[in-house]
User: Fold these one by one.
Assistant:
Number 1:
Amino acid sequence: MPIRNRLAELHPEITGWRRHLHENPELLYEVHETAAFVAERLKEMGVDEITPGIGKTGVVAVIKGKTDTSGRVIGLRADMDALPIHEASGVDYASKVPGKMHACGHDGHTSILLGAAKYLAETRNFDGTAVFIFQPAEEGGAGAKAMCDDGLMARWGIQEVYGLHNAPGVPTGSFAIRPGALLASSDEFEITVTGKGGHAAAPHDAVDTTLVASQIVVSLQSVVSRTIDPIKRVVLTVGTFNTDSSASNIIAHQAILEGTVRTLDSECRALAQERVNAIVAGTAAAFGATAEVVWTSGYPVTVNHDDQTAFAADAARAVAGDVIDDVDPIMPSEDFAYMLEERPGAYMFLGNGDTAQCHHPAYVFDDEAIPAGSSWFVELVERRMPAA
Ligand code: NI
């Protein structure tokens, strides 16, 4: 069965929640108003349990089915945080907060999951327990990890976990997924190169840090092209290059390079780091400079589990008919990866139509995708834990 009648009826109400959240974006762990709004809606629905303050500002809610002979518990997750972007979408419910915007559609994800909660709280036509996870700080703050570190999975006995993300460029309301790696790991590096500053006219008395750092940038491009198996996918980008020289006639003493490495498996992740470290140390030494690399580990690879992916695709087929179940992986990263490290589960893409990409000031979440998203969560619950 496709979209359920009741979810179609709830569509305007859910859209209203979504637009309220859109007008009031909050960043990272500072999602206090958003979490309060979520908890308030859940309370109105009469869910069985609401626990705020998990992972600092996350909210966990429980809805029990009519029966619980299965002993099954599945977790459904949405992210709540916005981005430090000044909105330029032109919609009439645009952000009221200058410099903050729901530019990744997390307002949509939160509302979709609330919609599923409302439906399931009314019907409870399943045999087991559904746990609703509303997390803070997906955008760089590892809110999913913070919730896991607070004991999320064990405390609520979660056995499997599912989430979704809207996908611009995919037809609205359609679904796409793949087993295995879906989104990349993300690690940041900062390289400090120290040579010997001096007069631009006397290079023989200096060690030209700008030249050494330039050689490093060029050599780093060999990491992916010459050491990674060409069948694998790795990105290495140097994003910033700054020196402490402030004039054309000064040879810099120090340079700082910042960049990121994205991979789709942990072996490539380790190999890329090892090669970056070796190239930086060797290149600096060859020119008589010194260099230090500091790594900041970001999110791991988001890896969908095989059985849960097939199940998630079946649930999506029940909602939308055809489902792409071998979509190409993409190189952004996603902190749902941490939840998938703790429990089997799957992460689904939900089409958002022909809109600007996520993280763009003109991005618009397509409210027409809501019924499909909410229906998918409902299908997961009712199919995994069929009414006794
Ligand atoms: Ni996002």
Number 2:
Amino acid sequence: MAAGPTVASSAATPAAEGAGELNVLHWWTSASERAAANHVAARMAENGLKWVDGAVAGGGGGPAIKVLNERILRRMAPKVAQLNGQSMTEWADMGLLLELDGVAAKRNWSKVMFPQVMAQVTVHGHVVAAPLGIQRINNLYLNKAVFKRLGLDLPNDWDGLERAAAKLRAAGITPVAFSDEPWQVATVFEAMLLSEAGPVLYRRMLEQRDLSAFDDPALERALKRLRNWRNLALPANSALGIAPGERPWTDVVADFAAERAAMMIMGDWARGELGTMGLEGERDFSCKAVPGTAQAHLYSIDTLAMLAGNGGSQADQEKMAELLGSATLQLGYNRIKGSIPVRRDVPVDELDPCAQQSFHLFANPNTPRVPSLVHRMAFGEVGKNAIIETVHRFALDPSQTPAAAQRKLQGLLRALAPKTKASP
Ligand code: BGC
């Protein structure tokens, strides 16, 4: 029978595992994330594998990665871990990840999967993780019921958003759903940076780590935008300007869904969550891009790595990896999660219109695909955390000017050591 994940076993004290059991450390704890993980667990159960759950709460995965590090140091590595992006290289270099070249070759991953996905999971020529889904980050959600009720057109540009915000406020509705949690602030910021800088400059800054790119006035403009946007999240009826607070992302989505706020910038996981609340993309909310970014796809890719050295589990780990990459699992999982399949050959007309849009954009070779900083596509854990912290401090400290924050970011990048050559 298809069993769902067992309730979070403490990640630090894994239960003894039998044949076919794989403990999975991840950070999918919201209703939609949970449902997507349950979907994977059910497909695994059909194939004689058992997903033993090791969920560590905390959006964006900061706490989960800390737990994973601790467990590795204590030689209590889980068999499977959500390990996205650049950290994979560090982990693979230390010999911690099982190479999945055999699975990739058997299932023809290099043909069926998007090249960017394969590039993301390949380290020194070896496939070291199984990709699950691609998220778009630069989404602007507008609550259609609210805009309709107030007789407002859906805005497409920053000026239009500002005008709408003033009217929303006048009607007693907080314009923007927002959280002061550092990773959420920085996720909004990276979409604004893309808006102001455009894909080429964004890449020069965060992918190529070109210090001179940090002199560009686009960075200062993006920081100003972030501050404005956060100001629009102050409660409509508060003259004193109460801060949005460090709330979990699910609370932000709930504010938007319950019409307590009308606009939101967030990655696709928000669409998954809105789905579990009965809201559908394009029917109940628009899935536009953040102004100025419609042609670009600011992405992050969710992947599960198999940890090496789990004597006796390799066959099960490979079986799981194979399943994760299969077309049916890809479709089922991503439909719930809000992301899009990592394969090019999946019938996406079965996904909602927002996902289809994201898929076609990502699949188009002319689309600038831009890696998410916050979600580890451009930096490893340490670098991205340092940048998040700097952006977060600026956002919450009105005495810090955008120009000062720009200099801090440039200094930080200098300290993080620029790359010697541009990535391909
Ligand atoms: C992950 C998503 C997850 C989101 C919120 C991102 O870093 O890629 O899968 O839903 O964080 O926790």
